């Protein structure tokens, strides 16, 4: 997955352009910048590649989620439904706005279970936020139908699945808003960065202003611009955007490499009795950044994960035990451990997490191993790795 594995002259040349002009900021300094508008150019390319009317670059994927929610007017006391298996950024972005993260179960797609989502909808629910974890997607058809029926917004977190598709459309472009991360370990990277996409003109304008202190970006004198509403600073720098500009042109090549490597690994595991694979919703195509599979029991999965590590098969994850990706280890969220007093709306509205259990999620996550698919592997290396994985797994079954 990490795009940094294949950094080269393209990235170097884009960054050099920025350093040569000396303009590291994305706005203003028109005379000095020698025609280089890396952030603007990258936004155009993202919008085009993701078949969306608008893209707004920001400083991180977490910022993209925060700005996306803010742009749609989500704030104090509003509820956002998220999965129990995600990255901490999901609830961080929601809490940053004084809104309430409502966690629900995942199913064998390893993403939101539409039935669990439906059950969690209440009078304060405003947004459903599927997180397309580990290269594949939520059942977007079912979620869209629920959103339509309850008049809710659909916000796709496609940070880990850029380039995947659903019914032929890029992930991120199906919901009202979609978010990507370009942090250092994502399929394409800026070092740090993120973007949101939308077809909604108002959301886009709001995002453009909100992510830059409320600047209305009218005219070409920054100091004279007005501030129609309160904002914040979630800007990306030209240096980061320059790296992303080189990387987005390589996205389709990266996806092809991931697919090739994934297929070799999957074909080796497919014939093994006791191995089954994560369900991809009908109409979906993964971005192949991870190979995700289930084993018959939690005990076998734990032992197999340890055996893979001991056998030198690196970059395989047992998320069930992971501090950053699964609710079981989120004591800080469950008990609202915060540096400062938490907004009253959040304290009043947060579900009773210390008592909450997500048994259906445990059923799937306890038996899931996810193996990262790298870009820099040679073919022989992947074939050897696949054979080794298959033999280690067979030994544990
Ligand atoms: C990486 C990631 C984010 C946050 O992105 P950052 O750029 O690291 O802030 C959000 N959601 C998911 C699913 C991610 O994997």
Secondary-structure blueprint of this entry?
Elements (H helix, E strand, L loop, with lengths): L8 H13 L16 H12 L4 E5 L2 H11 L7 E5 L5 H8 L3 E5 L9 H7 L4 E4 L11 H11 L2 E5 L7 E2 L2 E2 L6 E5 L12 E5 L2 H10 L27 H11 L2 H19 L6 E2 L6 E2 L4 E5 L3 H13 L5 E2 L13 H4 L9 H6 L9 H7 L2 E5 L6 H18 L1
Parallel strand pairs: 2-3, 2-4, 4-5, 5-8
Antiparallel strand pairs: 1-9, 6-7, 6-11, 8-9, 10-12, 12-14, 13-14
Q: What composes the largest sheet? A: 7 strands, mixed
Indicate the percent of residues in helices.
25-40%
Strand content: 5-15%
**What is the molecular shape?**
globular
CATH topology of the largest domain: Aspartate Aminotransferase, domain 2
Domain count: the total is: 2
Query: Which structural class do you get from the secondary structure elements?
Result: alpha/beta
Look at the structure and give the mean pLDDT.
97
Total helical elements: 14
Radius of gyration: 21 Å
What CATH architecture of the largest domain do you see?
Answer: 3-Layer(aba) Sandwich
Low-confidence stretches: none
Instruction: Tally the beta strands.
Output: 14
* CATH structural class of the largest domain: Alpha Beta
Helix and strand element order: HHEHEHEHEHEEEEEHHHEEEHEHHHEH
What report would you give on this structure?
With 397 residues, the protein is α/β, with parallel strands linked by helices. It folds into two domains: 3-250, Aspartate Aminotransferase, domain 2, CATH 3.40.640.10; 252-396, Alpha-Beta Complex (Aspartate Aminotransferase, domain 1), CATH 3.90.1150.10. The chain has 14 helices and 14 strands. The longest helix has 19 residues, at 251-269. The two termini are 29 Å apart. The structure holds pyridoxal-5'-phosphate. Pyridoxal-5'-phosphate binds at residues 60-62, 86-87, 89, 131, 157, 159-160, 181, 183, 194.
């Amino acid at each position: 997955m990490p795009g940094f594995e294949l950094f080269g002259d393209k990235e170097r040349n884009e960054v050099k352009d920025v350093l040569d002009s000396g303009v590291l900021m994305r706005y203003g300094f028109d005379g000095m910048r020698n025609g280089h508008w890396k952030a603007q150019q990258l936004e155009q390319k993202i919008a085009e590649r993701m078949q969306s009317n608008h893209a707004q670059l920001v400083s991180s994927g977490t910022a993209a989620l925060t700005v996306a929610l803010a742009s749609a007017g989500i704030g104090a006391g509003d509820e956002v439904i998220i999965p129990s298996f995600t990255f901490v950024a999901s609830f961080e972005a929601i809490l940053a706005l004084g809104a309430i993260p409502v966690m629900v179960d995942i199913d064998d797609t390893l993403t939101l279970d539409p039935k669990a989502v439906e059950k969690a909808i209440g009078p304060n629910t405003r947004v459903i936020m599927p997180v397309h974890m580990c290269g594949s997607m939520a059942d977007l058809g079912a979620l869209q139908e629920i959103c339509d029926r309850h008049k809710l917004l659909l916000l796709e977190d496609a940070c880990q699945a850029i380039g995947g598709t659903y019914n032929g459309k890029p992930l991120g472009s199906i919901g009202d808003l979609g978010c990507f991360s370009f942090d250092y370990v994502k399929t394409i990277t800026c070092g740090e960065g993120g973007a949101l996409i939308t077809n909604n003109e108002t959301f886009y304008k709001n995002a453009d202003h909100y992510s830059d202190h409320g600047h209305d970006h009218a005219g070409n004198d920054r100091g004279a611009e007005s501030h129609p509403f309160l904002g914040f600073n979630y800007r990306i720098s030209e240096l980061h955007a320059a790296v992303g500009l080189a990387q987005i042109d390589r996205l389709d090549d990266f996806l092809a490499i991931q697919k090739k490597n994934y297929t070799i690994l999957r074909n080796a595991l497919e014939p093994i009795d006791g191995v089954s694979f994560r369900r991809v919703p009908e109409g979906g195509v993964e971005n192949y950044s991870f190979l995700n599979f289930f084993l018959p029991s939690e005990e076998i999965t734990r032992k197999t994960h340890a055996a893979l590590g001991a056998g030198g098969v690196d970059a395989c994850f047992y998320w069930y035990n992971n501090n950053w990706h699964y609710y079981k280890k989120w004591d800080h969220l469950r008990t609202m451990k915060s540096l400062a007093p938490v907004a009253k709306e959040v304290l009043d509205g947060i579900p009773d997490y210390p008592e909450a259990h997500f048994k259906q999620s445990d059923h799937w996550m306890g038996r899931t191993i996810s193996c990262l698919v790298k870009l820099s592997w040679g073919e022989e290396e992947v074939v050897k790795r696949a054979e080794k994985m298959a033999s280690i797994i067979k030994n544990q079954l």
